[in-house]
Amino acid sequence: MSVAAAATPLEMAAAVLPGTPAAIVERYATLAQRAETRSFGLIEDDVIVLDTETTGLSHRDSELIEIAAARLRGREIVDRFDTFVKPSGLIPEEITKLTSITNADVAHAPAAVDAVASLAEFVGGCPVVAHNAAFDRGFIEQVPGGADVSDIWIDSLALSRIALPRLASHKLAVMAELFGCESVSHRANADVEALCGVWRILLCGLADLPAGLMRRLADMHPDVPWSYRPIFSFLAAEEPDAVFSLVDSRYELLKGYEEAEIGSAARVDADELVGVSVPSREEIEECFAPGGLVNRMYPGYEPRSEQVQMAVEVRDALATSTHRVIEAGTGVGKSIAYLVPMAELARRNKVTVGIATKSNNLADQLIYHELPRLAREMDGGLTYCALKGYDHYPCLRKLDRLARAQEIKTNRDPADTLTAIAVLYAFACQSPTGDLDGLGIRWRSVNKADLTTSSRECARRLCPFYPDKCMVHGSRRRAARVDVVVTNHSLLFRNVAAEGKILPPIRHWVVDEAHSIESEARRQWAIKVSADESRAVFERLGGDRAGALGKIARDLALSDAATLFMGLTVKASSSAQRASLAMAELFDAVRELARAARSEGGYDNANMWIGNDLRDSMVWAGFEEVGRTALDALDEATKNLTSLVETVAEEKPDLVTDVADGQRRMRELRDGLRLILDGADDRYVYSCQVNRRLKAGGECLTAERLDVGEALAEEWLPEVHTAIFASATMTVSDSFDHFQHAVGLDRISSSSSRSVHLDSSYDFERNMAVVVASDMPDPRSRDAYLSALETLLVDVHIAMGGSTLTLFTNRRDMEELYDRVEPRLAQRGLALDCQRRTTSAKILRDRFLSNEKSSLFALKAFWEGFDAAGDTLRCVVIPKLPFASPSDPLSCERGAREDRAWARYSLPEAVLEVKQAAGRLIRTSTDAGVLVLADSRLVSKGYGKKFLNSLPAPHQRIEVRQVGRYLEMWRESHERR
User: How far is the CA of 557 from the CAs of 78, 436, 648, in angstroms?
Assistant: First the structure.
């Protein structure tokens, strides 16, 4: 390994997460040098470092094509293993491009079973280190004899997250470059060489963690087999007397940090300013001119008139304390357009401004790319932070408690929970602030509730980390002292519901990706009474011998007032048990209600509107009787729990945290049930949900705000000086009316807001085609429609050579067509995937993006926010217009109150969804693609013009039998360019 090539402190500072303390950066920058001389004894004696290459990412249908390994003793590689592996089929073209492994290379290679047998002989049972070991191990162990290779697999990817928690990326290639190791080339032997160098870096990183932490990790849950335990045990032996305290580690880390990083003064509430200093239009235009601020941020930047226009619009809104709705087409560069004037306002006036996004992708882009560049180039600098909900941060009190608990309650591999604990300890010891989202924890195997908290559950003053050493409250304190806060839509609307008690007093907002905020606000403000929440509350409370109530009974059994406490505990426990039984009967009644009322919905879930007709029925009368019984039981239990909490808190306040949380949650269940049973508050839509796939569980009663715009106009817009709503999809047939109504701007003075459309800087007419299959049968004639759609989909996929995303509105049609179409495409060598219930959206995305010729049938999760630039995605097919179901409770309630509800709400919402789906195609100036619309109602119904006039490119009406030929010609013409 060449230490001379390792990153300098300045380069390392750019490779770590923003906000990393300088001491941590310096420590990382010297790791390569220290690894050259450090000895790790037995844990680096006879270690096998391994990597594989395969025909794809899926263990189900991909195969090994190369295995490489090296035997490490100390710093030396003493032996090597490398072999091609002959797969049963041909190597996909994209894999050959990536790895340079050809079919000729593997033609005479050993079969997988022989290659793995030779590997097992080479390994000889020694520990195996691999980056993302589950991937390599899975491919090796699915070969007969593969399980004999080794019993100990060490995942260097997970270990790197423990050893170096502040790195922005833990990819092997990134770490190899940072620490001067061999470069990665997507060949197994080269990757092994790189990992041999990185391995010792990781051991040094672990040794740098606080004294005593290695012992804490090595000793926790000794009954759980965990491959990292021997490493931690060895390192712990170097400091046998060290005692670890996370509280002390946080204290040392945070000493002087905030003052050094962001200053000590809280920002001013803009409401208290006499006048606001805003940059002039000329100053904003200069920022985007050649040699200006943006040019310094991005040396190759070329000014775009639409971007400058948007920046000036944002500046004008700030100067006049008015609002803006800005539809900015793809390629305008809207994030920089709003960041520049917003940042200038914050810096000049010492106020905090807010940016709210829908997706984590955009939030990460702002926090890790745009804002750091802006901060470096702005005169006087710029401070910023991300702020998310409670469940995005580790609860350090729970972390300590879980590490010391007697057992781990999980249905999955408990070793994954131990790894999560280790990652979080290391992260907390080196991170003044930060969240869970980028830590790579396998939440499908780890119970997130064991390591996070909620606003209701948080112990606050009873917690040893509160407030400064807590990552949740520390982030909130920091947010009150920075120029720019980046958050998400959900937290913004939770803050509105909490009357501004979550976020700092921010009076200037940009709401990006604003097309979806109405539905997000409705979701955040929904009041739910669910079987899952009810069960969780009663399980947490327990009884007089178990759970939170049992703990109080045990801990106070010897106190002077033991008789009083025991009496209150027994009374609370008994009433909680009665309430639990009553709620179980309630949810049985919910299921019966849905069955008796013949509720509609998908074939997985029933979603039933609770309207006046249902409330007047005999079915409802029977249900309401059960509901009132449950309500009385909840009321009694809530009162008894309140008495217990108030009495015990006087003597032992630290004992009542969990019971107080249960009491609060039970009170919310009671109040929500009363609201829904009464049904008197006409601001809400009432409904119930049942999972038809389960015999029990998943039942829910819901109350949602009907008119989100009214709530925003009354509860949020009056509290802010300027709100900038930005998105690429807001207008319907060039009209902003639907969006303005959705966010409440039509309920305030017309002079206080302005709407602006800015065209995309991309050439949609040249690069995008819109095809309407004009003679498709009506979707309501299901058999004829699906038969024609099958023919169309096969033709489209063959003509485009794959690279097609088909977006369905229901699972039943999607799965039936997949079963028909996939075998026909397979005969042509085209891969087709499907969004099955058991497959995660992330796995599908990764699989799609890794193969330019693959195609995907998908549902709602892929209609927006899915980016696949270049040839990976060249065609989007929309089989059916995405109208809301007529039986959807919101549609039913609107229809009952307004005669033209469908045209006013369902139609424009469907138009915007189609615009969003079309937006998946053109993500860069060089992208080209085709949108195929397979719903003939676009030409047979008058409302079809609304859809077609809202798309960024003109459309062609083509018969189904000619669509394939048209696409072939389109593809040929674009590939010649």
Answer: 64, 39, 12
- Placement of tokens 């602006």 in the chain: 756
Low-confidence ranges of the chain (pLDDT < 50): 1-4, 601
**E-strand spans in 24-149?**
45-54, 64-73, 76-84, 128-130
Q: How many domains does the chain divide into?
A: 3
In a domain, 319, yes or no: no
Q: Would you state the pLDDT for residue 596?
A: 78
Element (H, E) at 937: helix 937-940
Return the pLDDT at 265.
66
Put the strands of the sheet holding 684-691 in their side by side order. Answer: 527-530, 700-705, 684-691, 605-609
Separation CA 443–CA 424 (nearest Å) = 13
Question: What does the alpha-carbon distance between residue 333 and residue 329 come to, in Å, rounded to a whole number?
Answer: 9
Domain holding 103, by residue range, is 3-208
Angstrom CA distances, 333 to 341, 514, 925, stand at 14, 15, 12
pLDDT tens, 34-68? 999 888 888 888 999 999 999 988 888 899 999 99
The answer on 784 and 700 residing in a single domain is no
- CA distances to 304, 659, 664, 818 from 654, rounded to whole Å, are 59, 11, 16, 56
Kindly give, in sequence order, each residue whose CB lies less than 8 Å from that of residue 178, ignoring residues fewer than 6 positions away: 6, 7, 11, 12, 15, 167
In the numeric block, which tokens belong to residue 593? 């209600």
Tell me, rounded to whole angstroms, the distance of Cα 154 from its chain centroid. Answer: 27
Q: How far apart are CA 579 and CA 630, in angstroms?
A: 6
523 within 8 A of 553, measured Cβ to Cβ: no
Residue 660 in tokens = 């107080």
Amino acid at 799: A
Query: Does residue 53 form part of some domain?
Result: yes
Whether residue 321 lies inside any domain: the answer is no
If asked whether residues 825 and 947 sit together in one domain, one would say yes
Residue 289 CB: number of other CB atoms within 10 A? 12
DSSP string computed for 182-203: PPP-SSHHHHHHHHHHHHHHHH
Kindly provide the residue ranges of all beta strands, DSSP E only, lying in 490-542, ordered along the sequence: 508-511, 527-530
Token pair of 536, please?
């969780």
What count of Cα atoms within 13 Å lies in the side-chain half-sphere of residue 179?
A: 35
CATH number, domain with residue 80: 3.30.420.10
* Nearest by Cα to 609 from 740, 704, 524: 704
pTM to 2 decimal places: 0.86
> Of the candidates 148, 179, 208, which is a domain's last residue?
208
* Phi, psi at 381, each rounded to 5°: 75, -175
Domain boundary among 691, 708, 725: 708
Backbone angles phi, psi at 520, to 5 degrees: -70, -40
Query: How far apart are the C-alpha atoms of 330 and 312, rounded to whole Å?
Result: 18
Give whole-number Cα distances, 257 to 210, 260, 264, 468, 744, in Å: 18, 5, 10, 11, 42
Q: Residue 175: which residues within 8 A CB-CB, separation 6 or more?
A: 160, 164, 167, 169, 181, 198, 201
Tokens of 609: 């509107």
> Parallel, antiparallel, or unpaired for β 323-328 and 753-758?
parallel
Beta bridge partners of 155: 130
Whole-angstrom distance, CA of residue 924 vs CA of residue 920 = 10
pLDDT confidence of residue 359:
78
